[in-house]
Queue: 2 jobs
Job 1
Amino acid sequence: MVKDKPHLNLVIIGHIDHGKSTMMGCMLIKTGAVTDREARELEKLAKEYDRESWSYAYVFDRLKEERQRGITIDLAFRKFETESKYFTIIDAPGHADFVKNMITGASQADAAILVVSGKKGEMEVGVAANGQTREHAYLAQTLGVKQLVVAINKADNWEYSEERYNECKDAISDLLKTIGFPVKTINFVPTSGMTGENLAEKSDKLSWYKGPTLLEAIDSFVIPEKPTNKPLRVPIQDAYKIKGTGVVPVGRVETGILKTGDKIIIKPTGFQGEIRSIEMHHEEIKEALPGDNIGFSIRGIEMKDVGRGDCMGHPSNPPTVINPSGSWTGQIIVIWHPTALAQGYTPVIHAHTAQIAAKFASLDKKLDQKTGTVIEDNPKFIKKNEAAIVTLQPIKKMCLEKYTEIPEMGRFAVRDMGRTVAVGIVKEIKSE
Ligand code: GDP
């Protein structure tokens, strides 16, 4: 693995059974991320697990099984490289932690492969009102995934037909357009994850197709620029008291640049001080950039001054705080709820490293998911798959930013009963 190639986080999305695991298993083998020997070992393992047949999906599914059994996942199985980049495959939206990880920045997907089965009936089910092709594409857009490639999959099943490809491409284009993706720049690659058609090599069975292979398409993704020119925001993950050093807060730089000697402020506590030293991977560094996980020491800081969920910035442009007497308006999509959300509902909000209960003070507008236009003012309820503008009031001080200004700090998840009920972005803030 060449570590100095630029890196992208990739998420594989799409309706269940459209062939995501099979395709990723095949890709990992084709790119050499899993060697032939490892593949044979996996095959043996698959047999021991009493699976009927060996398939590429097993390579990828092994990740899921390991996760279920709580074993640390071998990272090698989640990384692969192309000509110019290397990729980490992150949790898929089917996984419980996906949305939360995206929101809290634990694993921000930069790009996505949307796998759509072209098999008769399957594509149609995916794009239908309750389909996961639709749901996942919407989530990806809301959570800031800007780059996308579409694999029109299972080509062996639809006899490599150009006509069927066009039918699928048109339907998916319409869907993506209404969600707000720049369809003109998106590649639609006809593939078979089972036989490897158009994954790493051009398929002669699909000679009418003139575009890139799937690997070429993801190789052409652009590496997002680090948001170094935005105000400094470091959400605090934790703080430790270390003998001889004092209190060491740790966190990830989301935006801006932090240097030793910088004057800083921590919100909502209001503590101000000066950065004495910064550490990353146990080494002292002079400056930290977005994406860096760091620990740092500050003269005079005590445990009461800093904790999980707080946010550090420069005093000239401090993190925004919402007081319990204030509120924010959010645009949300309800992903799951047994009944419906109503005014007064007070679940836990997860945003960056903060987890704070907040009340739905009002339901302001129900929106058409497809067009974003208002379909109802002051709705009484919002249900699964519905989008809305709502006003939320935190029960204690909370750091958030407008999504248009600092997107990294402007996303949130609504959690209840151990599940993600909704995801949203911050539209407006009333501090108090
Ligand atoms: P996932 O739920 O999206 O991860 O889908 P899987 O990879 O588990 O595949 C679901 C089903 O579709 C399995 O029965 C696969 O054997 C089948 N399948 C996956 N890829 C292909 C393909 O390219 N062609 C055909 N004909 N079947 C496929």
Job 2
Amino acid sequence: MKKLLLAAAALPLLALSAPSVAPAQNASAQAEKLRDAALKDDVAFEIMEGLTTEIGPRLAGTEAEARAREWAVRRLKALGFANVRIEPYDMPVWVRGEERAEIVSPFPQKLVVTALGNSGATPPAGIQAEVVGFDSLQALEAASDATVRGKIVFVSHGMTATQDGSQYGYFGAARRTGPSVASRKGAAAIVIRSIGTDSHRNPHTGVQSWAQGVTPIPAGALSIPDAEQLQRMLKRGKPVTMRLTLTPRNLGTRQSGNVVAEVRGTDADAGIVLIGGHLDSWDLGTGAFDNAAGVAITAAAAKRIMDAGRPRRTIRVVWFGAEEVGGNGSNAYRAAHPNDKIVFVSESDFGADRVWRMDTSFAEANKPLADRVAQALAPLGISRGGAAGGGADVGAWVRSGVAAIDLQQDGTRYFDYHHTPDDTLDKVDPEQLRQNVAAWTAMLSVVANAREEIVKAPVTAAGQ
Ligand code: ZN
Ligand code: ZN
């Protein structure tokens, strides 16, 4: 029923595009109409609800991620997209096992822990060792091997919530590189304070990669209250002994894949607009914010453009596989499509809260295009920011000079749920989700229909 109403609502919009209006004004008017209609969108929420309910957690390379791809194909076809397909690739797969941590002495009690991606394993019965604590990654790096050897390293550091989520880059280093530093110094294992901003007993997982030549060791994250508990114990100055059991496994090479769908454009020479998010999630929650939201927002917006009539440029929606564990899907996609004329990229991968800023990466020649997008977004409370870098999935295109827009979402509460068991559908605010769809619809309408060519932007250091 809802779909019928939406389809009916789209008809008067086309009728309003009177031929007497100048083309640019006409296009702007259509973007505004589509934007305002998208503020009543239900498609994005329906995608999120379906994916998180019918599939749930979908760790990269697992059978669950494969089910998610099949689900995605069915849903994207039902929504009316063209050329819906799975593009498979192979990847190494890591899965979680048992995970337990407890203080043996001097204050025996259990702590809540989860393994970080690619963590090494303890024996089934776990390991027992003294804990050596550090306030930061830098403090661990500065420590002598003798202080660390044979011990369980603990790195604590308080990440703070910010609207732009910028603290993640700095504090996230403890997760990304801390395990390799600890292993190099001979540590038996490492546990870090979760990279997050909540105060619940939910540990935050996330990927870490072993540096070249480093022996994998067990690597986990304690929930923030548990990390603070351990810190208080260490401050009392007595040796603290922990028993840690983490039994993840490497399954070897398995198949993963990207799911691709298109809104066909009218002008094949005008290039392709590539958008999307990632279909895989961590295995602890149902991956609502990260990243059912992103695939839902981008597909819902593309559908709105499709339902309003064929755009000039083809819009290619990619639901990337295996973003969480290292961007295997994005890498495979780029390798498989070296000659595609992709002129614009954008991704959504920062939850479901409102868009507040637009970052751009355009050539000077395309400044009028950026201005028109900014104008279409301003009524949604979106201001102009700095340089767009893409994200984990489309950043490589941006770094090679492909034009991009980042619709930056409010990240104030994103790291309360990020990579935890608490990343579930109930956290989503449907009104903020609709604002995202409206922003994406307006942006896509302007970019996909722009009459000018979209040319390569100067390559900057912004993409990261
Ligand atoms: Zn993500
Ligand atoms: Zn993630």
